[in-house]
Amino acid sequence: MDKYLEMIRIRFLMMLAYRTNYYTGILIYSINIGAYYFLWSAIYGEKDAIEGMSVIQMSTYVAVAWMARAFYFNNIDREMAAEIKEGKVAVELIRPYNYLGMKTMQGLGEGVFRLFFFSVPGMVIVSFIFPLQFSADLTTWLFFAVSILLSFFINTQINLLTGITTFFLFNNTGLIRAKRVVIDLFSGLLIPISFFPNWAQDILKYLPFQGISYVPSMIFTNSFSNNEAIQAIILQGVWVIILVIPIQILWVIAKKQLIIQGG
Amino acid sequence: MFYIRIFFQYVAQYMKTRMQYRADLFVEIFSDLLFQAVNLIFILVVFGHTNLLGGWTRDEIIFIYGFFLVPYALFSSFFNIWDFNERYIVKGELDRILTRPIHSLFQIVLERMELESLFGAVTGIAVMFYAGNSLGLKLSWADPFLFLLFVLGGMLVYGGIFIMIACISFWADARTSIMPMMYNIGNYGRYPVDIYNSVIRFVLTWVLPFAFVGVYPAAFFLGKEEWFLYSFLTPVIGIVFFGISILIWNSGVKRYRGAGN
After folding, report:
1. Cα separation of B82 and A164, whole Å?
2. For residue B159, which of B204, B210, B232 has the smallest C-alpha distance?
3. Closest by CA position to A61, among listed A224, A192, A179, A248
4. What residues contact B128, with CB distance under 8 A and at least 6 apart?
5. pLDDT at residue A238 above 70?
6. What would you report as the CA-atom Rg of chain B, rounded to the nearest whole angstrom?
């Protein structure tokens, strides 16, 4: 366990060394939030509420969805792809830790860093610019904390899956790009799932993506009742467990057919 | 003439290298398509809840998006200078460029072109025809020519802005993240400017004129007469911004001292 904690710490320190990159990152995210804020304001127009959400809840949704993305988002799929292509993965495999576990911990180190240096200050800045609404209810924050951690795990597991495909496809830059676009849409980052037409909602219900952005953002904006929130969090947890299965299967197959050239 | 000949020689070489890895090319085009589809889905879903967006209908917004895709496709095919700083200044590659017999910027355009992005233009035109059809738009004889003019204007606006930002590297060689920021600001131009507040509208029209890549020119084909003046300004703004960017580029190149050995 110690070595994984150490991994989180090292990644955190590594990110700290390059922190200037993050100030512009906040600006970029604020620009995106702004674009969607104006769009949604225009969409609401005179309407008080759409699908049970007021315009302020919507702006808060957009802001928190983007800022939370900074926490759960990571590039471990690309890192894995690079390590596999360069053959570095051979060294990683003989080291005394679980490669996938170690990658997850690196992602978590990155996430924790961005939570403190990106999401939190970003959220404060954005709340000065746009009218947002923060919950005063402690349980909401508690639910949100649990939910956002689970969304990190779901997103990371999907990244691990994409990363492992490099063993079979060799070049998966296109796949990684496509995955990112699909997740932005289906996770509810761009539009809350409840805004989709019913048939699409029925399909999305059975996919893990809504656990990435939709659930924590809905909890944060108080758009879920306590019961709904608990159910959604349980569902997130179930997905974390389910996703372990394909990862393990693919990982075992991948290790068997791995050929490292040279070294 | 010499420039045109060189251009086509580079295009031919480019095709050869890309055709070598067809699967890769296919996946890239596919993920571009997916990205455009996501933006369209966004518009469609949003209009499931409202009939008008700042006074514009669903099909009009789709039309604007379709139009935007065409100059954007041209821009991303020929102006891949977002990594100019790392690729040419920091590594000293610009030394090599300057020894070539053609204008340095043109040489970079040739080297860095990504013709597969042109597929975006095909998608864009298809989207425009679809939206125009459901709006009942009529095509007059002048429309194709104006379309071409506006598309080129839009491309020059995009190109001009990004060249200017690339030029920052001539004066300050630190890495800046302005480039990715610009790509995000560019997205604002895809929607009618009336939905933004007046400051943003002013910026999108005169400072970073991204509105001339999407809404303004598209408004002409949609018959929105209150925007006609802006529509016809598109090529002017394009030429002005591109012209200024070339001037800045030239004086930047004069300042360039090379990096390392």
Report:
1. 30
2. B210
3. A192
4. B63, B66, B67, B70, B221
5. yes
6. 19
The closest CB to that of A171, out of B24, B35, B38, belongs to: B24
How many domains are contained in chain B? 1
Suggest the residue from A48, A177, A201 to mutate for an interface test with chain B (most B CBs closer than 10 A): A177
Q: Which chain B residue shows the shortest CA-CA distance from A176?
A: B31
Q: What is the pLDDT of residues A82-99, one digit of tens each?
A: 888 888 888 888 888 889
Asked if the Cβ–Cβ distance from A50 to B187 is below 8 Å, we say: no
Average pLDDT along chain B: 89
- 3-state SS record for chain A: CHHHHHHHHHHHHHHHHCCHHHHHHHHHHHHHHHHHHHHHHHHHCCCCEECCEEHHHHHHHHHHHHHHHHHHCCCHHHHHHHHHHHCCHHHHHHCCCCHHHHHHHHHHHHHHHHHHHHHHHHHHHHHHHCCCCCCCCHHHHHHHHHHHHHHHHHHHHHHHHHHHCHHHHCCCHHHHHHHHHHHHHHCCCCCCHHHCCHHHHHHHCCCHHHHCCHHHHHHHCCCCCHHHHHHHHHHHHHHHHHHHHHHHHHHHHHHHHCCCCCC
Rounded to whole angstroms, how far apart are CA atoms A144 and B60? 39
Instruction: Tell whether A96 is within 8 A of chain B (Cβ).
Output: no
Question: What pLDDT, on the 0 to 100 scale, is given for residue B67?
Answer: 95
Residue of A nearest to B183 (CA): A28
In B, minimum Cα distance to A201 occurs at B45
Domain assignment present for residue B260? The answer is no
Residue B56: strand, helix, or coil = strand
Name the residue of chain B whose CA is nearest to A50's CA: B49
Map out the domains of chain A as residue ranges: 2-257
Compute the average pLDDT of residues A225-250. 95
| Sign of the alpha-carbon dihedral angle for B13, B17, B20, B23 | negative
**Number of inter-chain CB pairs under 8 A, A vs B:** 84
- Tens-place pLDDT, residues A138-193: 999 999 999 999 999 999 999 999 999 888 877 788 888 889 888 989 999 989 99
Residue B172 to residues A105, B88, B168, B180: CA-CA distances in angstroms? 37, 14, 6, 17
Residue-range definition of the domain harbouring residue B229 = 2-255
* pTM of the shown model: 0.88
Chain A 21-50, residues with CB within 8 Å of chain B CB atoms: 21, 24-25, 27-28, 31-32, 34-35, 38-39, 41-45, 47, 50
| B111 burial level (CB within 10 Å; 0-12, 13-18, 19+) | middle
